[in-house]
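Subject: design request, 404 residues
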């Protein structure tokens, strides 16, 4: 029997909901761009902190880990702590806390103030991924895969914008005012989220069709493993890419160009592959992107510099695009149908894999050579193919349950 709310939605028509849906997606994208920008702008600040505080490279890694470790480790507990808040309040509060962390860093409190600010900013950013992803999922229901790809793409826009702005401002101002400026931007975004995101979250009616996913727990564990391996492939290859370009005669400018081409392709891939997954299906989308990833990574070991630069945007599309397909599958396989917790667990896994993978692939290269390290990253992408085939029954079962 059709529920009253579903009947009302049908009577009103889908166009009546377009504004709340778009506002929800826009708010999630705005939050994602800011928080991912906050994360990656730290790379531009590390050399400045090394010079000012006399840090070793290991010390720099530990300083950055104060932020990334806090953000990754608090995905699940942070999400559960604010689960009673609506998405609007949760995203605004998370953004305010992250911006407050950067304000603390901007204060003249020395190295302890820097560390305290990084931890506070990490606490705020830990909430964004699961809450914003849940906001998009609730707004679009069964059709959320494509919008989640757009949400994913928005994070890459922040990654491209914030480090570039910080790098441009550092030659004309000291780092504390620069960080203070980004903190003010964060406070403005927090206020904008209160205006932009609907006060009462719109729940797409298709979500009423299924509240329990008994097959989701086993399927979710396999999905999480695939997500972790996909992230490991990406981070492992990024570790070696600058050196591959150098060995082909690339200058520092060419290395920057190569990275930019890969990231541009990655941003396009995140936007496009979410829609691809919605049309081609999860399993075949992942098979295509991972097979192409493995082949193109291997190709960059053999190509001269110019053809390699041509290939990098294509590699970026498939290297990053798989993540949108996987993120879009989280709502379908979330344990016990708890989508918010599912996203929190998934982001914990992929962030952890992103941190550990460069260490693992670097150790492989140290004990063999760089070529073996790159091939290990390609092999990781290939290993995902049989795993996603094993995931097919869980995905098919979840889709059948949604349609029941």
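Subject: RE: design request

Done. Sequence follows.
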């Amino acid at each position: 029997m059709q529920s009253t709310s579903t009947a009302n939605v049908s009577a009103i028509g889908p166009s009546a909901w377009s504004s709340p849906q778009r506002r929800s997606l826009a708010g999630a994208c705005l939050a994602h761009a800011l928080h991912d920008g906050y994360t990656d702008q730290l790379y531009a600040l590390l050399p400045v902190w090394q010079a000012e505080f006399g840090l070793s490279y290991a010390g720099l890694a530990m300083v950055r880990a104060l932020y990334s470790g806090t953000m990754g480790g608090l995905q699940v507990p942070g999400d559960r702590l604010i689960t009673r808040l609506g998405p609007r309040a949760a995203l605004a509060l998370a953004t305010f806390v992250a911006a407050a962390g950067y304000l603390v860093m901007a204060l003249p409190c020395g190295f302890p103030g820097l560390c305290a600010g990084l931890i506070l900013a990490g606490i705020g950013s830990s909430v964004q991924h699961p809450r914003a992803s849940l906001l998009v999922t609730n707004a679009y229901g069964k059709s959320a895969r494509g919008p989640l790809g757009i949400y994913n793409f928005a994070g890459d826009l922040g990654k491209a914008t914030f480090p570039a702005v910080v790098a441009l401002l550092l030659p004309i101002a000291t780092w504390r005012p620069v960080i203070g400026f980004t903190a003010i931007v964060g406070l403005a975004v927090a206020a904008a989220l209160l205006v932009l995101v609907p006060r009462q979250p719109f729940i797409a009616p298709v979500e009423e069709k299924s509240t329990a996913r008994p097959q989701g727990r086993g399927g979710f564990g396999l999905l999480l493993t695939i997500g972790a391996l996909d992230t490991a492939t990406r981070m492992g290859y990024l570790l070696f890419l600058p050196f591959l370009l150098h060995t082909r005669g690339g200058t520092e400018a060419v290395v920057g160009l190569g990275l930019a081409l890969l990231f541009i392709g990655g941003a396009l891939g995140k936007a496009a592959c979410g829609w691809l997954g919605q049309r081609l299906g999860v399993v075949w989308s992942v098979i295509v992107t991972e097979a192409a990833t493995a082949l193109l990574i291997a190709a960059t070991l053999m190509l001269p510099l110019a053809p390699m630069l041509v290939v990098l945007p294509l590699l970026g599309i498939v290297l990053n695009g798989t993540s949108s397909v996987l993120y879009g599958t989280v709502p379908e396989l979330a344990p016990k149908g708890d989508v918010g917790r599912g996203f929190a667990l998934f982001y914990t896994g992929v962030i952890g894999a992103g941190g550990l993978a460069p260490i693992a692939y670097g150790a492989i290269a140290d004990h063999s050579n760089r070529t073996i390290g790159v091939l290990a990253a390609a092999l990781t992408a290939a290993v995902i193919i049989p795993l996603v085939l094993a995931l097919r029954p869980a995905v098919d079962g979840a889709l059948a349950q949604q349609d029941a």
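Residues 1-17, 204-217 have pLDDT under 50 and may be disordered.
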